[in-house]
Amino acid sequence: MLRTSLAGLLLALTPAAAPVTVAASPIPVAVAAYVKHYREVTGLPGVAVAITKGTEVVLATGQGRTAGGEPVTADTPMAVASVSKSFTALVVVRLAEKGTIALDQPVRRYLPEFTMADPRAGKITVRQLLNQTSGMDDSAFREKSLAQPETLRGAVARLRDARLAAEPGTVYSYHNTNFQVAARLVEVVTGRPFAAYLDEQVFRPLGMRHSTTVDTDRDLPASARGHLYVLGRAVALPEPAGFGNGSGGMISTAGDMARWLIAQNTALPAGTVRELRTPSKQNEHYALGWELGVSGRGVPMVEHGGDLFTSTAHQVLIPGSGYGVAVMANTGLAFGDAHTLMRGIVAIIEGGAPEPPSRPAFVTDVLFALLTLLWVGLAVRGLARAGRWPVRRRLWRLVPYLLPVVLCVTIAPIHRFLARGRDAAWIQLGYMYPTFMVWLVTAAIAGVAVVAARLFFRYGRRR
Fold first, then answer.
1. pLDDT > 70 fraction of the chain, expressed in percent and rounded
2. What is the second-level CATH architecture of the domain 6-349?
3. Fewer beta carbons below 10 Å: N end or C end of the chain?
4. b/e string for 427-447 if b means 16 or more Cβ within 10 A?
């Protein structure tokens, strides 16, 4: 078993990882032009891009501005969301290679505090956390719509009343809590806070001076806050309440991500790479914090995307050519800008042309904006005529006015059904469908106001 520390291996890499732009390559110019054009068409406020090949940095740059109006550069800290899972998986696998833990042993052997209301949880192994086959799922544990924890200890503690959706090791299900439990395991077996251990074992050895991992939305630096598109324009908004350490809480920069991508090709032992990139039998496309896919031309890739409600990120490794790419965009999961940009950049690297960018769904926003204005107008008219509502008219005629209220109350479970069990809190739906939710809330308030006014005048006159 390989016991050499990750820190020692990566310290040796640091000099080779220093940023070096390959001036002779046409790729930096083509990618910069593509990103600029994409921003002009879509209105994307800010984006950071890193491209590497072997041990060289082909490009590490930023374009546009942060939510606070500062220029995005290669050193601007931005959210990488679920790209964080690759880092968590690495430190867990390295602990296994040192003999501190064993991937195929039960989690509870190393983390006694990990208990659930389902006795099958005792069989969940460390590997099953990392390849998302633990049996935990949004359908059984609504991780986003429940009260959010403050720490990794709290993230594990709130599982005490939870049950599993499937027998451990039988079904793949992407669930952030798997990686939060894994990060807490790291804390317990090392006796170090997860952020400190990640910094000691990965960030500092690689020279990732601007990278860290945080617990909640409140810990995001100003430069990592993002936007929503509303009526075709980017609107800066704070990230809704959420916990992400271990699963999606990392902050990094284009320059730092370039060092990380280089390390994947040069610093990690072959056994570590093989372990991290071996998928489960339950999902041949998901390994340990990495996904296995192909490019537009069918070339094998190793990747992982990440989504917050106000920002997105994506990383890709192309083992055959030695290229690595990381993209961080400060718009949310409803728009997928980082993922679209990644496809375009990979197309350029492969000698092709990216698909032309398109503007956000402006027509849908306009439709719901007009519906909102219409409902406001109808509410004003209804309130003005409330005193003339016939006393003898039956009360059931008021029911249609309350239907938007019913939809407001049930919109979260409806979304879970349509999204095949994926959980989202009510406020998070506002970030995913902003103009629709504004119309819905307006319609609900308008309906309640008209019903209340009509009932007041009806029964007030009788008294």
1. 93
2. 3-Layer(aba) Sandwich (3.40)
3. C
4. ebbbbbbbbbbbbbebbbbbb
